[in-house]
Amino acid sequence: MATFTLNPRRRGRPAPELIFGDLWPYDPAPETADPKLLARYGLFINGRFTPAKSGQVFDSINPATERKLAELARAGTADVNAAYAAAQRAFDTTWGRMPGRERAKYLFRIARLLQDRAREFAVAETMDGGKPIKESRDFDVPMAAAHFFYHAGWADKLDYVAPGRRVAPLGVVGQVIPWNFPLLMCAWKLAPALAMGNCVVLKPAETTSITALKLAEIIQDADLPPGVVNIVTGAGEVGAAVMGHRTAAKVAFTGSTEVGKSILRSLAGTDQKMTLELGGKAANIIFDDAPLDQAVEGVINGIFFNQGHVCCAGSRLLVQESIAGRVLAKLKQRLQVLRVGDPLDKNTDLGAINSREQLRKITALVKAGVREGAELYQPACVLPARGWYFRPTLFSGVTMSQRIAREEIFGPVLSILTFRTPEEAVEKANNTAYGLSAGVWTDKGARILKLATELKAGVVWANTYNKFDPASPFGGYKESGFGREGGRQGLLDYCRLA
Ligand code: NAP
Ligand code: MG
Questions:
Q1: Exactly one of 277, 408, 479, 485 is catalytic; which is it?
Q2: Is 180 in the pocket of ligand 1 (CB under 6 A)?
């Protein structure tokens, strides 16, 4: 272990030891804003917070400390029925009849109130889900506000969504979202539905419902008519009740391919509309003419962003054989200086894994990778004693048949494969059941354009990764689902055309 005495602020204090490699210890820099959490949250139905009819509750846990944050109501069928009845009433009496320019005012209000309370929301999001504060502060919360602003701008221009056609809202929409971007997924789901004039029953994930309920506070403050947005909390069976309700004119689901398929089966034969945003196993492809440092930074961002809890994570790296050794060395170096730990610390790069269950899944797949013969690399970082954490992990020498190359890990684990020709890269990238996203790193514009058409992925990033914009539609091919969120295409999924 090395020591250093360089920091003048530390003069007179014992020289701290470097934890590993060249990682300098920083003083703790915790974000201190008050997340303003209540001890207990009800269901948000018809504009009011109410306990579940059964009186049942469950705990929301902070994955970084394993401590309870708040008690949430567990909805039952009667509560889901009440939420749908409120939504249908609001659609028939207010929201569905309101001119778009009036709906826009409410959406602008929600966006601005969210900006006003941005720090509070960022801290709440980090405490509930485990993601680093710099991500919730700089990505999740601003991007959620941006989605409301963007769709507020559309609400009085809906005649341009499908030029030459008239658009009409569908009615009541049921929505179920996952735990990886809790507030942002609320915004992705609510903003286009509301802009179009639909009313909503939404279920957040059991482990991350708090920011959805805080958004309900904003919805109250924005004076949205009661029943336009209803939020019911609970686990998978509540999700199934929301997705299977006969009142829903459309259901929108984001989550795993497995649950998505079961929803698809249960709705077969009905006339309900449906969009599914499911899993992914994206390839990030580096050619030998790419600017390597930039590419390595993009690969790191692509897989370690939000602990790899990202459906479009670049979880497979395809690197051209001639530069594979250099890229691997650079990646290892970069991994050594990633800071893993307290998500509320502003210096933290990787926070906590969202749940014990997810940690178990990641651990099992990594063990499978080792068993199947891939070469494992993990930096020797010290993980906090409490909470659910996983070291950033690289696997080299991976082959297409191994589970770590095929299955979605949804954790900070990168599988590295090599290729020789562009054709081989495309073939390997497309050799997956999924098709959500891909990345290409090369100096040649023509190659980017060619690959963008050949890669079967809803999004192809070129010389960058994980870039989002509310105007840019997002969605999958194959088992990654169907339908788009964002942009004009996203709005088309929330309307009837006449
Ligand atoms: P999940 O298990 O499918 O859960 C997603 C949501 O569905 C949660 O709210 C869950 O409730 C609920 N649910 C569970 N069983 C259900 C059922 N039978 N019927 C209806 N709803 C049900 O997925 P996850 O593990 O939370 O999320 C990770 C997955 O989401 C990954 O596969 C990821 O790729 C995918 N994802 C996709 C996108 C995209 O845009 N394509 C974005 C983000 C995530 P509880 O969790 O409360 O039990
Ligand atoms: Mg939680």
A1: 277
A2: yes
Question: Does the annotation count 277 as an active-site position?
Answer: yes
Same domain? For 254 and 332 the reply is: no
Structurally, how many domains does the chain consist of? 2
Exposure letters 366-395 (e unless 16+ CB within 10 A, then b): beebeeeebeebebebeeeeebbbbbbbbb
Instruction: Give the range of the structural domain holding residue 48, as residue numbers without chain letter.
Output: 40-278
- Same-domain pairing of 420 and 294: yes
Query: CATH code at 456?
Result: 3.40.309.10
Per-residue pLDDT of the chain (498 residues; tens, 9 = 90+): 333 334 444 444 444 444 445 677 889 999 999 999 999 999 999 999 999 999 999 999 999 999 999 999 999 999 999 999 999 999 999 999 999 999 999 999 999 999 999 999 999 999 999 999 999 999 999 999 999 999 999 999 999 999 999 999 999 999 999 999 999 999 999 999 999 999 999 999 999 999 999 999 999 999 999 999 999 999 999 999 999 999 999 999 999 999 999 999 999 999 999 999 999 999 999 999 999 999 999 999 999 999 999 999 999 999 999 999 999 999 999 999 999 999 999 999 999 999 999 999 999 999 999 999 999 999 988 999 999 999 999 999 999 999 999 999 999 999 999 999 999 999 999 999 999 999 999 999 999 999 999 999 999 999 999 999 999 999 999 999 999 999 999 999 999 998
CA of 428 to the centre of ligand 2 (A): 36
Report which secondary-structure segment, H or E, holds 31. none
Residue 124 burial (CB count, 10 A): 26
- Calculate the alpha carbon distances from 346 to 8, 132, 245, 349 in Å: 21, 7, 43, 8
- Assess whether 259 and 319 both reside in one domain: no
